[in-house]
Specification:
Blueprint: H1 6-15, H2 20-27, H3 31-43, H4 52-59, H5 64-68, E1 93-94, H6 106-117, H7 131-147, E2 153-157, H8 162-170, E3 176-180, H9 186-198, E4 204-208, H10 214-226, E5 232-234, H11 241-254, E6 260-262, H12 270-280, E7 288-290, H13 298-310
Parallel strand pairs: 1-2, 2-3, 3-4, 4-5, 5-6, 6-7
Helix pairs in contact: 1-3, 2-3, 4-6, 6-7, 8-9, 9-10, 10-11, 11-12, 12-13
Length: 313
């Protein structure tokens, strides 16, 4: 009997990528099928991030440096002897790419579920602001950055430790990066700017609810002018105001690759609306612009309407 090549098996099983029940059944048939299916199951983990069992497996992959982040909290980590696979090495995405507008953090939810199940008490009233949750999340993100050889999409929500952020900025193969409520200091903002300027793979970037200062906003906008791969930018909930508007208007004058821009919830007023209206007469690449939940009044709205009426893109 002729055995089909691995490529054929992979095509068949990859077609069942989201039919987990069938894949788990096939995985138990023999070792050959198991070796093909496990990388498929672990390549996209968005639906598993909030699962405490998934978190348990990931925590067992921490190295000594990553475990060091948890020492002050006296966490008892799971130990699995002789794992059959380096499971996390197959992960390509650590975020839900179909729901970028959401601020919900599946990884954080998974960490909280794991901590609750194992009887750990929060250090403060709110788990989301808890130092223990932040530490576990950072250790996991550090591990993902180290072990995920083909990591393409990553969401980092909440406070990120400086050394973890430095490792993130060294990655040059990420195409989608989602940064939410990170409270960047000036040094981290500079590193992020340098990363955006040098990166040649990033196509989607979300920097949301970070309340970056006016210098940071201008500098980030300058980096968007220099970046030549970014096509989608979400910069919502950062309170950029009029000075930030000027910087982003400049981006739309200079950048020729950006097709989608979300600046919702940024305290943009009438003058900001008029400024965006002016640039829309000239910009020939932007196909989506979100200025919702701002303070653009009737005058700014009228100017935007005129510009959109004449814009043919």
């Amino acid at each position: 009997m002729i055995t089909p090549p691995n490529e054929c098996f992979f095509k068949i099983f990859d077609y069942l990528r989201f039919d987990y029940k069938s894949l788990y059944s096939c995985l138990l048939v023999n070792r050959h099928w198991c070796r093909i299916i496990v990388p498929i199951l672990w390549s996209e983990i968005a639906t598993k991030l909030s699962n405490r069992k998934f978190i348990n497996t990931c925590l067992s992959s921490l190295n000594s440096d990553e475990q060091e982040l948890l020492i002050p909290f006296k966490i008892i980590l799971p130990i699995y002897q002789n794992q059959l696979f380096e499971y996390t090495s197959y992960i390509k995405s650590v975020c839900n790419i179909d729901n970028l507008d959401s601020s919900f953090d599946d990884l954080e939810n998974g960490v909280i579920n794991w901590l609750n199940y194992n009887g750990y008490e929060p250090y403060c009233e709110d788990w989301e602001d808890d130092k223990l949750v932040i530490a576990v999340k950072n250790s996991l993100i550090a591990m993902f950055l180290r072990t995920c050889k083909e990591l393409k999409c990553l969401k980092v929500s909440g406070i990120i430790y400086n050394r973890v952020f430095k490792n993130l900025c060294r990655r040059n193969n990420i195409i989608l990066l989602d940064l939410v409520k990170n409270h960047f200091n000036s040094e981290e903002t500079k590193e992020l700017i340098e990363y955006i300027c040098k990166n040649n793979t990033l196509t989607t970037l979300k920097i949301s609810c970070n309340f970056i200062d006016s210098w940071g906003e201008k500098a980030l906008a300058e980096s968007f002018c220099k970046n030549t791969t970014l096509t989608s930018l979400i910069f919502s909930g950062n309170c950029i105001g009029n000075e930030g508007v000027k910087a982003f208007v400049k981006v739309l004058y200079i950048n020729t690759t950006l097709t989608s821009l979300n600046l919702s919830s940024n305290y943009i007023n009438n003058e900001g609306g008029k400024a965006f209206a002016e640039v829309l007469y000239i910009n020939t690449t932007l196909t989506f612009l979100n200025l919702s939940i701002n303070y653009i009044g009737d005058e700014g709205g009228k100017e935007l309407a005129k510009a959109l009426y004449k814009n043919t893109i």
